Amino acid sequence: KMTQQMRDLQLAQARKPPGPSSPNAAKRLYRNLSGKFRVNYTSFDEGSLVGRGEKEKLRKSYLFQSNAALFEAVELQDLDRVQEMLKHYSPEELDLNTPNSEGLLPLDIAIMTNNAPIARALLQAGAKESPHFVSLESRSLHLSTLVREAEQRVNELMAQVVNEAPSADCSEKEKQLKAWEWRFRLYKRMKAGFEHARVPDAPSSVHLSVASSSSLQVTFWEPLSVNSAVVTKYKVEWSCSPTFSPLLGEAVMDKLKELHFTIQGLVSGTVYHVRVSAYNMKGWGPPQASMPPFAIPSNWREYDGRAPRRRGQAEALDHLLGQVKTVHQHCICHEPCKNQPQSRKHSVSKSLKHLFHPGSKFLKTLKRGLYLTAIFYKDDNILVTHEDQIPVVEIDDTYSCLLMQDFLWLTKVSCMWDEILWLRQCVTVSQSSCSCILQTRFKMLLAISQMQGLLGIQDLGQVFFEPIKDKQGNILIVTLKEVKTNQTFESVRWVPVCKLQSSRKSVSSPEEPTALDMLLISIQDKLAYHQRSSHALSPGLYLGYLKLCSAVDQIRVLVPEQLPNILCHVKIRSNPNVSREEWEWLQKMASSEEPVPTEPEADRSQNPLFQELQVAIKELMTLVNIPLQEAKDFRLYSQEVLDFGDQVSFLLLLPPSDDVCTAPGQNNPYTPRSGFLTLPLQIFELGEER
Fold this sequence. Notes:
40% of the residues lie in helices and 18% in strands. Strands 9, 10, 11, 12, 13, 14 and 15 form a seven-stranded mixed beta sheet that branches. Strands 3, 4, 6, 7 and 8 form a five-stranded antiparallel beta sheet that branches. It contains 21 helices and 24 strands. The protein folds into four domains: 57-196, Serine Threonine Protein Phosphatase 5, Tetratricopeptide repeat (Alpha Horseshoe), CATH 1.25.40; 207-298, Immunoglobulins (Immunoglobulin-like, Sandwich), CATH 2.60.40; 369-534, Alpha-Beta Complex (Nucleoside Triphosphate Pyrophosphohydrolase); 540-592 and 602-689, Nucleoside Triphosphate Pyrophosphohydrolase, CATH 3.90.79. β1 and β2 form a beta hairpin. α3 packs antiparallel against α4 (79-88), α3 (52-75) packs parallel to α6 and α8 runs antiparallel to α9.
C-alpha cells in the first residue's frame, strides 16, 4: 500500500522538471543558486517585456531549483550550505515541507542518516517529518522499497553499460549509473540508520514554574543520550494526580526553536503535576517528571487581594483631561474669540504677518538667551535647514528665571505635543500680569508652535535629560526623535551626521564653545542615548537597585547608560511572575528583619527563589561596585512587586535608610563603575512611562 502511494505521488509530480541526477550536478546547482535566484527574482517589474504568466513560470522554476538544491545539500550532508539556504530563503520559497518524488522530506533524510546538526537546523526553521510514515512498519517498508528499486536500477544500468559499445549514449548511461549507485548507498545508509535507532531517552531536565494565577510554564532540555535518533517532537502532559490518572491535558510540540511551553486555562490554587516525553522516528520515549514535582497557579497579589496599581489610571487621566478642556472652552481666554470679531480679525492678521517676520525663521547663531532645537534622525542622517543648520528657534532672549523648574515642566509638555495650541490658549488668560515663570512657559509654548509650524511636524520627540549651557549665557533645550520611514520635508533635508560635523565652521574658540558647537560635538552621544532609552527589557523578573542623590533644586536617580529608562538591575529569571508562595516567603523574611540572602543556607537550599536571589544580589553588588558584606545591611522592598506590563517585573534592593538618597556634601564611599549616569527623577519617570 505504501509503495502504491509513492507511485501515485510520483505520477502527480511527473510534470515537475527533474532535479540534479548526481552529486556534482547538485553542487554546481546550489553553488550558483543564490546569485541566480537573487538577480532574476528581484528583476521582475510591471514594465518588463515578460508577461505576468511567464514571470510566474520563471518564479516557480527558481523555487523548484531551490527546493531541489536543499534536498541535495541535505543528502550530501553539507551543513554550511543548508544553513545558508535557510538564512536567505523562507520555508515557503524552499518548499521545506513538500515531499520529493520519493515521498521524502529534507528532515526525513537528515534524521535517517542521523545527521543531528542538519536535523536541528531544519527543525528550527519549521521543518516537519513526512506525513506518509504513519507507523514504524510503513517507514520500514518504504525504505526497503527504495533500496530494492535503486539496486534494481543499478543492475539494469550496469548491464547496459557492459553490453553496449562505447558511444555518447553509453557515456550518458555511465553518468546515470554513478548517480544511481550514489543514491543506492544513500538509501542503504538511511535504512541502516532507521534500523539501528531506538526510542529517545527522557528529557534530561524539566523545570516547572508558576507563570500566573491561571498558567504554568514548563521548560525542558533535550535528552543527554547521543546514540538514539534525533528528537523531532515533545509531549507535555499535566494532571492533578501524581500518577497522571486521569490525565487533564496534553500538548505536542513540533516547533523546537525554544524548548518551553505554557499551560493555560488552569484553576488558581489547584495542585498540578507535569511531565514531558520526547519523540523520534522510533516512537515516544519515557516521560520525565518536573522539578519541583508540582506547582500551584497563583500570583503575589492574591496574598492580600491587592488590585494592580495602574488599573484604570490611564482612563481616569483621560477623563480628567477631558473635563479640564470642557471647562476651559467657557473660560475667559475664549471670550474675545466669541464676542469681539474685530479683535479676532486683527489677531489673525497679526499672526499672518508673524509668519513672514524674520523672527519666525530658524536661527543660524545664538545670542544670549534660551533656545529650542529639534533633532530628527534616521540611521546616520539628521534633518537640517537648507543652510545646513540644525533647526533652532528662540524661546526667550531675556531669560533669568530658575531653569530647572521650567525645564522639567517642558519635559511634561513633551507628552502633549498635539495639544500645544490648547495649552497656549489656557496660559494666555492674563499674560500681562502673570508671573515670570508663567511668561517663560508661555514663550516655551510659542517656540514649540513655531518649531512645529516651520518643520510641518507635530511630534518633536523626547526632551534630552539636560539642557546645554555655554559660557556666553546661552541655554539650549534639545528634543530628539527617530524617523522610521522615508519622509521628505519642505523646509529641511537629510544630511549625514559626519558630513554636518566636518563641514560646520565653528564661530567660537575651543576653550569656550557655544551651545551649538557643544551640541554638534556631542550629537552622537545624544543619539545613542535616545536609542538606548527606547529599548525594552526581555521578559523576566529583575532585581533593581534604587540609589538617589539630591541637589538644591532636584533629585537624581542612578541608571545604567545602556538602559537609561530602567534602574540599575540584573535578571533574576525569565519568568516574570512572583507566586503567592514566593511572596509569602519574602514577607516573612521582611517581617523578621533578616538580612538579604548573600550566603547559602542548608535549610533554604530547596527554595528556588532564595537561590536565584543569592546569585542576583552578588551580581548586582559587583555591578554597582559595592562590597558584598555591605549588602547585609540592605533590604528588599516588600510592599509590592513592580509590574511593567505583563512581561517584566522588578524586586527592589534598597540601601540602608540613611543611604537611599545621598545629600549634598554627604560622602558616598562606593562609587559605581563606569557605564552609569544620574537622571533627574522627573525625567526618569517620563522615560519609564514611554
